[in-house]
Structures are given as C-alpha cells and as structure tokens.
Amino acid sequence: MQHKRSLSNRERGHSLIELLVVVAVMAILIAIAVPQINSTMSYLRFRSAVSSVRGAIQSARYLAVSQGLRYRLVFTKATSTYQATYESDPVNNAGTYVAVPGAPGNAVSWNGAWKQLATISADTTIQFNPSGSVSATTGALTFTLAYSGQPTETFTVSTYGRVSVTP
C-alpha cells in the first residue's frame, strides 16, 4: 500500500520573500567589502613599490662591492622607473657606464603593471663604489616615494649603503 504524505508550505522550499532577503543581505555585505578590498590592494601595491626600490638599492651596492665595479642606480620621476648601470672598463674607459643586462628595455618600473603610480620626489642618481661607499650624483641620498591614499615613505641611504625607510 502506498502512503501519500502531504507537504506543508515549510517543507516545499523557500518563499520568494526569503530569497530576496538573502540576496539583499549579500548585496549589502559586498557593498561594505569592496572599498576595504580596494584599500588593501592599494596598500599592498605601495608596499611592493617600496620593496622594489629598497631591493634595487641593496642589490646595486652588493654588485659594486662583489664585482669591484662602480654601479649607478638612476631613478626617473617622469616614467616611475629605475635603471642600473655599471662602469664596464674602469681602467681604459673610466666614466663610461652601460646598462645592466636582463631587464626589458633596461629600465624597470617599481610599479609593475598598475595604472596608479607610486611617484618619487625627484630624479635621483645614486653611485655605488667598489669600496662600499655611496654618493648621489643627481638629487640626494634622501628621497620620498608617494602613492595616492598612502602615507609617503622617506628613503635615506647612508654613505656606506644602509637603506632606511620611514613613513
């Protein structure tokens, strides 16, 4: 014998009003989360630019000392890029610098592929000597990096190559 069981309204599923309430709550939560996600992404992009500049400075000093050659790091404000160069033949061709191979176009953006750019305060050229000493041939050993909505970071490079970054 077959038993038929009648289903009450609760057992059949959710009403349209219940579904609309769930969708409305989800929309509100998404609207709250999107600005926070954008803010976090902006912060992470800026931290990446700061890390890129700091790493370039430390790498250039390391290369100068380890290879016994003068290196220069040229930061260009207009293009938000830096380029590493080295004195290829200090004995026969002193003062002639060539680009360090490996980077596309030899200039590297500290911003990656993002549309919003972190900007440096001024064009700056830092020279790293084989002895470990550091000097600025253009600009100064202290410069800033700024990014929309983030606190400006100040880079200070000591005359022996220590890099400090302060907000």
Largest sheet: 6 strands, antiparallel
Under the CATH scheme, the architecture is 3-Layer(bab) Sandwich
CATH class: Alpha Beta
Proportion of β residues?
A: 25-35%
Order of helices and strands: HHEEEEEEEEEE
What characteristic shape results from the CA principal axes? elongated
Determine the mean pLDDT. 84
Number of domains: 1
User: How many DSSP H or I helices?
Assistant: 2
- Unreliable stretches covering 5 or more consecutive residues: none
Radius of gyration: 28 Å
Give the CATH topology.
Answer: minor pseudopilin epsh fold
How far apart the termini lie comes to: 81 Å
Q: What is the element layout, followed by pairings?
A:
Layout (H helix, E strand, L loop, with lengths): L8 H4 L3 H52 L3 E6 L4 E7 L9 E3 L8 E2 L9 E2 L3 E5 L5 E5 L3 E5 L6 E5 L5 E4 L1
Antiparallel strand pairs: 1-2, 1-6, 2-3, 2-4, 5-8, 6-7, 8-9, 9-10
